[in-house]
Design goal:
The protein has helices at residues 11-16, 49-56, 110-120, 174-188, 202-211, 228-247; strands at residues 25-27, 30-32, 41-42, 65-68, 79-90, 103-105, 135-140, 143-150, 157-165, 192-198, 214-225. By secondary structure, the chain is an alpha+beta fold. The radius of gyration is 19 Å and the shape is globular.
Length: 248
């Protein structure tokens, strides 16, 4: 991060160059989480042509690159494949509190967590996302019915993410309890909780504001596909790098 920049202005970069540096996969000045951990990445605030070329090397199987929270203008020739308005909220005054019924979730719980996410669609939660921080859940009859946890870790802040409740158990305040409980753990280590959600998710925004979160800024969750010639060049450069490593 450059001097004077706020960690939440570019939280992916701040996380991957800070508390989550151990997860960082780097190409030039571009960093990303492993694809089975999180779609967030770290791109300089003012990326140049070389940065965009390096980013193209991270394109997925569909040829696109996720750009959550990236404010920079996508270069000419890149095709936006996903573009959703979002908001960032900060919980400096959230009434955090532990929850005696909340259980810590770990790798053994991932199949259940992925099933709950598939049915509720709170946003990206991948097979190794649980490694990013503390995830808490509530069970009914042994079945996981609600969860929330930690994702990005810019210095001094921790993002609350994957907040979801089984549709059959909504209206009972389970999500609010888990957000308070996760926020409590974040506060205990001296961080401030924050979160992201789609701007159209007005019900969630009302819940978060009722808990004490305040809007900090708007942002976009996007993905883009680089021009074919850029992608081909990036692939060739990446292969040359791998060949050099194997030969070294």
């Amino acid at each position: 991060m450059t001097g004077g920049a706020h960690p939440l202005d570019n939280p992916g970069l701040a996380s991957l160059t800070g508390p989550h540096a151990r997860f960082a996969e780097r190409r030039g000045r571009v960093l990303r989480y492993p694809v089975d951990v999180s779609p967030w990445l770290g791109l300089p605030a003012e990326p140049d042509a070389a940065d965009w070329a390096d980013l193209a090397a991270f394109a997925g199987a569909d040829g696109s690159v996720p750009l959550p929270g990236v404010a920079a203008r996508v270069p000419a020739g890149w095709e936006l494949t996903f573009d959703v308005a979002g908001v960032q909220l900060v919980g400096e005054s959230v009434a955090a509190a532990p929850d005696a019924d909340a259980v810590r979730l770990g790798p053994a719980d991932v199949p259940e967590m992925l099933d709950l996410v598939a049915r509720t669609r709170p946003g990206p939660f991948l097979p190794r996302t649980v490694e990013l921080g503390t995830y808490l859940g509530l069970r009914e009859g042994g079945v996981l019915v609600a969860m929330a946890g930690e994702r990005l870790r810019p210095p001094g802040f921790t993002e609350i993410s994957a907040v979801c409740t089984d549709p059959a158990y909504r209206g009972r305040g389970l999500a609010a309890r888990l957000v308070r409980a996760v926020a409590h753990g974040i506060r205990e280590r001296g961080d401030t909780p924050f979160l992201h959600t789609a701007a159209r998710n007005t019900g969630a925004i009302r819940l978060y504001e009722a808990l004490g979160f305040e809007l900090r800024r708007t942002l976009a969750f996007r993905a883009a596909r680089p021009p074919l010639k850029v992608a081909v060049a990036a692939d060739a450069a990446a292969e040359n790098g791998r060949t050099a490593v194997r030969s070294g």
